[in-house]
Amino acid sequence: MAKNLERIVLLSPAHPLRGGIASSTERLAQELQEQGYTVCIYSFSLQYPGFLFPGKTQYTEGPPPEGLDILPIVNSINPFNWWKVGRRLRKEAPDLAIARFWLPFMAPAMGTILRLAKGNGHTKTMAITDNVIPHEKRPGDRLFTRYFIDAVDAFIVMSRSVGEDIRQFAPQKPLAYIPHPIFDNYGPKCAREESLKRLGLSGEYPYLLFFGFIRDYKGLDLLLRAMGDPKVRELGVRLIVAGEFYGSEEPYRAIIREEGIEKEVIFFSDYIPNEEVKYYFGAANLVVQPYKSATQSGISQLAYHFERPMLVTGVGGLPEIVEHEKEGYVVEVNAPAIAEAIVDFFTHGREAEMGEGVRRGKQRFSWDNMVKGIESLFHEI
Predict the structure, then answer these.
(1) How far is CA 337 from CA 122, 299, 300, 355, in A?
(2) Could you give the CA distance from residue 147 to residue 169 in angstroms, rounded to a whole number?
(3) Helices (DSSP H) in the chain: which residue ranges?
(4) Other C-beta atoms within 10 Å of 360: how many?
(5) 7-181+366-378 sits in which CATH class?
(6) What pLDDT is stored for residue 135 in this prediction?
(7) Is there a contact between 38 and 11 (Cβ–Cβ < 8 Å)?
(8) Which of 135, 229, 274, 348 is 20 to 30 A off residue 52, Cα-Cα?
(9) How far apart are CA 56 and CA 20, in angstroms?
(10) What is the mean pLDDT of each run of 10 residues along the chain (381 residues)?
């Protein structure tokens, strides 16, 4: 434990809210507790109003993580609630309050709560910043983001591109780059045969995996175009698309019809429960992230955990995470480049060597590194 740092509050989504940010916050809390810290998560009673959430539900039906103190008390759209929660945090006076920041919409609530908490003259504030400038921009984003950043004493970024974004707002504040740790809280690896059986898939074909929420910036359209490439079609490869649509399915269905790949693309278009994630990665030969923009991606860290090679585009922090031709591929943001990498992977039998590269490379992404980074940054404030 760091000197003078004992009690920590995490301001972030957590169970019963679902998604990668909630899951990784819970995992961080577990790691902090294992290292002797007292941890409480201030989560949301209301995260998004319904009109701002395009998915089917914000909540998981799975059981809560064991041994965590999670308080769902933050209402993202109620200023009276922000004042109440901020006053509570100021009174409790933890040594450190860490906010998880990923969207300017959350800035008024989180910025106000942190400002009030700091009024006790004791609590230091930190942010783990997934994004600062969002993928899908809206009016007021920069104003909201500045309001949040001004309330924070120090920052952890998980990609260097986000660090550069923060420096536009806070050139002098302490900042540390710590890559996103692996998602090792989704169970052990699952054998390919069992995974295919659980998903009802044939063992006759090799499989690509596109995993996670389906939004325009994630580039599924590019991957579908690549699937229509004649050289890819000759491979007999199938594409698993596992995730919930955030928007209309029709543009993607239209590409599938246009390319004539109805039999090659298999949709599991619901939110994937945590306990089933291992089957999708277990079935996949190669995980594809054809993103048009990115900072970092939790999908990469799932692939590392399940030891699956990756094909990513060279945007944001993705090239920092995947070493080209050792742990997978880093390619340009276009369908021909994606298709070329897919063909190389299967025609030259790269799975074993790249899988070994992933097994070696995953050691870089430990939760202990994240805790050490928090401790070090705390003493810079």
Answers:
(1) 52, 20, 19, 21
(2) 10
(3) 20-34, 79-92, 107-118, 141-149, 160-169, 192-199, 220-227, 230-235, 250-259, 277-283, 298-305, 318-321, 335-347, 351-361, 367-378
(4) 12
(5) alpha beta
(6) 63
(7) no
(8) 274
(9) 16
(10) 88 90 95 98 86 57 86 96 98 98 95 98 97 77 95 96 94 95 91 97 97 93 98 98 90 97 94 90 98 84 97 92 96 98 98 97 94 97 94
- Would you give the DSSP letter of residue 51? G
CA triplet 238, 244, 248: central angle to 5 degrees? 95
For domain 192-364, give the CATH superfamily.
Answer: Glycogen Phosphorylase B; (3.40.50.2000)
Domain ranges of the chain: 7-181+366-378, 192-364
Alpha-carbon distance of 373 to 375, in angstroms, equals 5
Distance CA 72, CA 82 (A): 13
Q: Which amino acid is at 176?
A: A
Q: In Å, how far are 67, 81, 88, 199, 320 from 329, measured between CA atoms?
A: 39, 46, 48, 26, 12
- Which residues, other chains included, contact 222 with Cβ-Cβ below 8 Å and sequence gap of 6+? 290, 292, 333, 334, 335, 338
Task: Decide: helix, strand or coil at residue 206.
Answer: coil
Q: Of 262, 265, 237, which Cα lies nearest the Cα of 342?
A: 237
Q: Of all helices (H) and strands (E), which one includes residue 157?
A: strand 154-157
For 144, half-sphere exposure in the C-beta direction (CA atoms, 13 angstrom radius) is 18
Which residues are CB-neighbours of 204 under 8 A, at least 6 positions away?
none
Q: Cis before residue 16, ω within 30 degrees of 0?
A: yes
Amino acid code (one letter) for 355: G
Within this chain, domains 7-181+366-378 and 192-364 share the same CATH topology: yes
Is the peptide bond between 139 and the residue preceding it cis, with omega within 30 degrees of 0?
no
Please state, in angstroms and rounded to a whole number, the distance separating the CA atoms of residues 87 and 77: 17
pLDDT at 53: 53
